[in-house]
Design a protein that fits this description.
InterPro entries: BING4_C_dom, WD40/YVTN_repeat-like_dom_sf, WD40_repeat_CS, WD40_repeat_dom_sf, WD40_rpt, WDR46/Utp7
Oligomer: single chain
Organism: Paragonimus westermani
CATH architecture of one domain: 7 Propeller
CATH superfamily of one domain: YVTN repeat-like/Quinoprotein amine dehydrogenase
Distance between the termini: 91 Å
CATH topology of one domain: Methylamine Dehydrogenase, Chain H
Keywords: Nucleus, Repeat, rRNA processing, WD repeat
GO cellular component, one term: small-subunit processome
GO biological process, one term: maturation of SSU-rRNA from tricistronic rRNA transcript (SSU-rRNA, 5.8S rRNA, LSU-rRNA)
Number of helices: 10
Shape: extended
Radius of gyration: 36 Å
């Protein structure tokens, strides 16, 4: 409801009445904005019987016209094609083996640019905005704007196979055929880190959205995790007995899906990398994997695209599905892929699958072009406009870029444990054990100190040396007990041996014998302060 115009009212009475009405409308709008957070929309899903198969035609017959336009196919020559969505889910970019590179608004079908670079393109990735697109070419990585103009050509990045972008760190991560991982800072244009893996060709790579860790898959069946500040892998997992075809990490950073040439799909808990949560036997080895915002897992194998809603058996399944599960250990379940959440058959083999953010859409890159199919319940229905806004304009995009640059996280802060300010339980237990030992009266272990001979008459006897040792050891023990109990002012006090060392060091600094004589007289002179000293100060 809009506010009333109070200027056109003839009398003051009606004008005041309209102003009160406008005030109530404003208060109601503010109240509705406050409680809008509690009225969030839940994600939808498909409910079907056991063994029922739902096709795209069935879904299109039940949705509205606006949602039906999101299902389309674009036939292109010179495949295979790979694609990528922007972070707000509004734009899509693709590139092919023949050199075709394009980006467009897939909702309005408005083309941003379309060019042909003349050579094979391995991968395409949006940067922090949809106005910058990075393309992996044979001899370099090129960055294009939304007009198709090449604004950067990074020749240091050679033979790149896969690209990943870390939005909070402004890092473009690329894996090369020579086994190197390159971290490029997009704000300065410099390569901040180069990590050699010594694991051969890096054709399988993904990023952990939760902490920014890069995961790579290798031909020996292992998955390694890398940090830009470390030159060796922080975690190495042996997942399969054959070479990996693709890996994917979910939004929360907890689950990892791996697929290899042995036709097995395994779901791992990254927090515990010893045994997989689930192992699924596939009819054909999957060549591409992708997680959605709601945890759905899409896999493409040949011409078949299948979506799983319970890859790690976290959701409720039917009794017939549970009967097909064969228990390996207490935490691992083995089953045969059947009765998937959604399945689709493409005309050409699938090379890349990607879920669109904030839209129930699954993008497919095939040998014959790109396709978009509907996948209900895959996207997050409630988006944060301060994080990503699909309906952002030019002004908002400029402000968002400045805000992100101010909130940029240094690459040195990327770690496996991304929680800041967490209390270490080990330190608390160690400190408590020390206090407990002190309070219970357990003897504090103190080493016997070494005492130098005091070259004075009668001071170098064995009894005098032993007494000095006992005094120093007693002072050490009391200092250790007070510091363990947390007595204030203990850190300022020092044992006698430290004071003696400081005096000896101060005396050795004096070179002239006259200075040494003066200091000796000052140390030997001890005056007794009394009330007369305060009334009548002594002359120096």
């Amino acid at each position: 409801m809009s506010a009333m115009d109070t200027v056109s009212f003839p009398t003051r009475f009606h004008r005041k009445r309209a102003e009160r009405f406008n005030k109530k409308i404003k208060q109601a709008q503010q109240h509705a904005a406050k409680v809008a957070v509690f009225g969030t929309v839940s994600a939808g899903s498909l409910l079907k019987e056991d063994g029922e198969r739902i096709t795209q035609n069935d879904i299109l017959s039940e949705v509205d016209i606006g949602s039906a336009t999101k299902r389309f196919d674009i036939t292109l020559p010179g495949g295979p094609y790979v694609l990528d969505y922007s972070r707000n889910g509004r734009y899509i970019a693709y590139c092919g083996k023949s050199g075709n590179v394009a980006a467009f608004d897939w909702l309005t079908k408005k083309l941003l640019f379309e060019i042909n670079v003349g050579h094979e393109c391995k991968d395409v990735k949006f940067l922090h905005q949809e106005t910058f697109v990075s393309v992996a070419e044979p001899n370099s990585v090129s960055i294009y704007d939304n007009q198709g103009l090449e604004i950067h050509c990074l020749k240091q990045l050679n033979q790149i196979l896969r690209l990943e972008f870390l939005p909070y760190h402004f890092l473009l991560v690329s894996s090369a055929a020579n086994g190197f991982i390159y971290y490029l800072d997009c704000t300065t244009g410099c390569i901040v880190s180069t990590v050699p893996t010594y694991m051969g060709r890096l054709g399988v790579m993904c990023s952990n959205p939760a902490n920014g860790v890069i995961l790579t898959g290798h031909n020996n069946g292992s998955v390694t995790m890398w940090l830009p500040s470390e030159k060796c892998a922080v975690i190495k997992m042996f997942t399969h007995h054959n070479g990996l075809t693709d890996i994917a990490c979910d939004k929360t950073g907890m689950y990892l899906a791996t697929c290899a040439l042995d036709r097995k799909l395994k779901i791992w808990d990254i927090r515990s990398t010893y045994d997989p949560l689930s192992e699924i036997r596939l009819p054909l080895s999957a060549t591409c994997l992708a997680y959605s915002q709601q945890g759905l897992l899409a896999l493409g194998a040949g011409n078949t695209i299948q979506v799983l809603n319970d890859p790690h058996l976290g959701l409720a399944v039917s009794e017939s599905e549970l009967l097909r599960c064969e228990t390996i250990t207490d935490s691992v379940n083995r089953r045969v892929l059947s009765n998937t959440y959604l399945s689709h058959y493409a005309v050409r083999p699938v090379c890349r699958v990607r879920f669109c953010p904030y839209e129930d859409v699954l993008g497919l890159g095939t040998n014959g072009g790109i396709s978009s199919i509907l996948c209900p319940g895959s996207a997050e229905p409630n988006y944060d406009a301060l994080e990503e806004n699909p309906f952002a304009g030019k002004r908002y995009r400029q402000e968002r870029e400045v805000r992100r640059l101010l909130d940029k996280v240094p690459y040195t802060m990327i770690s496996l444990n991304s929680v800041v300010g967490k209390v270490r339980r080990e330190d608390i237990l160690e400190e408590w054990e020390k206090k407990k030992a002190t309070l219970l009266g357990e003897p504090v272990k103190v080493e016997m100190p070494k005492v130098r001979k005091n070259k004075q008459k009668g001071r170098s006897k064995a009894s005098m040396i032993e007494s000095r040792k006992q005094n120093i050891r007693f002072e050490r023990k009391m200092f250790t007990i007070k510091s363990a109990l947390g007595v204030p002012g203990v850190t300022d006090s020092q044992p006698r041996e430290k004071l003696e060392k400081s005096k000896n060091q101060a005396s050795t600094k004096l070179k002239k014998p006259s200075e040494a004589l003066i200091t000796k007289k000052k140390l030997a002179k001890k005056r007794l302060h009394s009330a007369l000293d305060v009334l009548i100060p002594a002359k120096e």
